[in-house]
Amino acid sequence: MPSEKRPRVINGKPTYEYCKTCRRRRVKCDTARPACQRCLRAGFVCEGYTVLELAIRPLHDNAAQGTDIAHFHPPATANSPELAAAIAPAAACRAHLLSLYLHDLFPTTPRFAPHIAHTTALSLPHLYAQSDLPSPLLRRAIDTLCLAHLANKTQDVWRTNLAADFLGRLLAQLRGALHLHGSTQTASPRLDGTRHAKTASTSAQSIMMTIILLSIMPKLAGDLDIPAPHDPSAIHAQAAVQFVASYGPTFLTGSPRTDVVLTRHLQLQGMGVAYARRKNFGAAHPGWQGVPGMLHEEDAMYRGSGFVVQDTPSEWLRPASPRPSSAARARTLYEDLFDPVAQLLEMVDNFSAGSGPHSQQRLDNMAAAIRHADDLQLHNITPSLQESTAKAFGPMITASSDPNDFDPGIEEHVYLVTPAAAKIIPEHYRPTADPLTANSGLRLRLRCLLVDCAILQMIDSGTSRNDLPPDWSGLHQEDIERRAYTTAREILQFVHYASRRSLTVARFLRLWISAPRHFFVSYGRAPDEVQWCDGCVAAISARIARLVAAGQGETTCPMLGTVARSIESYRYR
């Protein structure tokens, strides 16, 4: 018996000649993207252009049973026919696709790791789902992201082709938005509170969010497997940093939630790109002077440890807003450590380049730079880490005193309880520690080790090329190596804490363990620690292979390749 014919699918008809506002006004449109200039000159808000809408092919009930396609139908919107009719089918379909994406990548009940709340709090798709952001460019980016996820989930050729078409149109629309924003900033670069300033700020926000969404875009079937650091994710992450370096904080619109999420993404991606390229992108734009560098996560950690004063306001301010006169100008993490690290790495590379002895003036300048970095490590960062560790983790655990905390089904735990491994690293941080504080502590230790490796590289360059003693800079090389050795061992104690988490964290953990390994190799006096790192990396790789084979989760973070490139900076000779 022949099966019933499926209805024909029409994906919508794009309006290329007119924007929605000009079509409603019945005037000729200049077709500028992403916003019609005729509307802007007339004082109207351009509603953008019609985009392709996805219509899911309906299947027979008996054919859909037991397949993933059965879950792709938009759910019933309401029992009331009036309310259901008021919701456009395209909007319902878009909402269904977004909910499918969020459900798959951020499950309510995690399948393989404890839930980390800050991943959803700092997720741009979640932000878009919870906010009213009427941007045609951003809507196109969300549609493309959801379509790419759907195509990979179903492995349908027609969905893959549709997602690829959406991606091409998104890149073309983004290119037009960048050109328009650049010309607007050239004509009027200052944000003075006018309507034009708000339009420019909203445009910059849409561009920033779109670039970040492109950086987490999943690879479609048939795409080339480009290795890092030239993969699309790393390129888009670098593009976001370069956009901010060129235009400053113009993407801040005054919306507290949106500004915090975007700035958090900027901090994570910007620091990773700067450290990987060992280049200071800088914050030369004057608008940054009114933007604090401290974020909520670091704020909570360092207030508790005394790194900043307890009564310092942490309110997010727009670039044009004055700083409250009652606010104490406390030292912030952004200004004291993270921002100068990339500049320090760039100075080290310039100092180490070439051959022959250094001039005395250059030696004096570099000695002052590394003494300043050492002062921050010695008097600010190290005391705060010691205090915050006790508050965040509590007593350490060992394989002998806490055997129930080691799961034989986790490869890292099996390795940690072996006599050889337990002899080198006997104590570990508790897995019940606060994720926000624990993650901050791990990242801060990695950056402290990076700073110490940069100091040691600079000392080694002066010692070898000018035949100077190890203390030529005013710092004793053995003291720096001893501090870096302690920090590297503390990083190894985070393995147990991170071993129960997701596939993405496992891939990062493998890189994080490689960082102290590079230091131990350069140090030359820690062969046992090098062997421990090799065994731990092998155990982590085995867990990654198991999770990949089980299909448990995807890695959408764009920073894996960038972080892998920065790991080489932990070699100092």
Question: What is the arithmetic mean of pLDDT?
Answer: 75
Which of globular, elongated, flat, extended, rod-shaped describes the shape? globular
**Topology order in helix (H) and strand (E) letters:** HHHHHHHHHHHHHHHEHHEHHHHHH
Radius of gyration: 27 Å
Into how many domains do the coordinates divide? 2
Largest sheet: 2 strands, antiparallel
Q: What's the arrangement of strands in the largest beta sheet?
A: 1-2
The class by helix and strand makeup works out as: mainly alpha
How many E strands?
Answer: 2
Task: Itemize the secondary structure elements and their pairings.
Elements: H1 20-25, H2 37-42, H3 61-64, H4 81-86, H5 89-105, H6 117-121, H7 124-130, H8 136-154, H9 157-187, H10 195-215, H11 232-247, H12 256-277, H13 296-304, H14 333-352, H15 360-393, E1 397-398, H16 411-416, H17 419-424, E2 427-428, H18 435-466, H19 477-492, H20 495-498, H21 503-523, H22 527-550, H23 560-566
Antiparallel strand pairs: 1-2
